[in-house]
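Sequence only, no structure available. Ideas?
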Amino acid sequence: MTMDLEYRADHLGSFLRPTSVKQAREAIQVGAINAQQLQEVEDNAILEVLERQRSIGFNIFSDGEFRRSGFQNDFMDSVEGFVPTDRPVIRIWKGPGGDPEAQGTDNVVGAKLQQTRRLTGVQTAFLKTHAPGPIKMTIPSPNQFPALVFQPGVTDPFYPTRSDLLYEITAILKGEVAALIDDGVDYIQVDAPRYSYFVDPKWRRVLQDNGQDPEDALEQFIAADNAILEGAQRAGAVAAIHLCKGNNQSKWYAEGG
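Reply:
I predicted one. Tokens follow.
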């Protein structure tokens, strides 16, 4: 279904995950359920949230991102080349309870990236079948990744700089946008929280400490998002960018003006 609509206000595409989905994700991690059982829980939760959106009068529909463990994690789940690292992940929050928060370790790029499947193929197919109207799909901006998954000594044998890694990720996400357009998706949203970092002196210093000029990095970010959205020009389709401060539970990463 393609409709020529203008959305003056709409939801971000994600909804708070219901308890059933959170419990199922915990269960599959310990082997208590299998992938088919997890999908059935997700299916039921998505059908419920679609009905909720219909009942309150939305005219664009999302699956709530209920099949994702996080807004950006479809990329890691669909692309090989990530390796575990012992580098600690420290979240530095602002706002209530904004003390530095250790969150274990994370995966980083340690090989050439190879896409193994569509990021949103299964999600899109289910949503197109069951949504009562036009659908929205969200993808992460390529800008979200280089700062998180580039580790000197591990990544640079394959991608010498963060910019090289950004170009590779941009190409993969550009292909995903093109596939969504081919799928007839009515609304494509790029989630790009990192733009807010450029107005925060703390994060500008982080860029500089990583050997990046903030103004040059900003130009690269803009070019990357423009590149993935080049193919999103189709009659009746809407493309959007979601900007935020890195919000989570009343805390945030970046601030400034």
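Strands lie at 79-91, 101-115, 136-140, 187-191, 238-242.
Hope that gets you unstuck.
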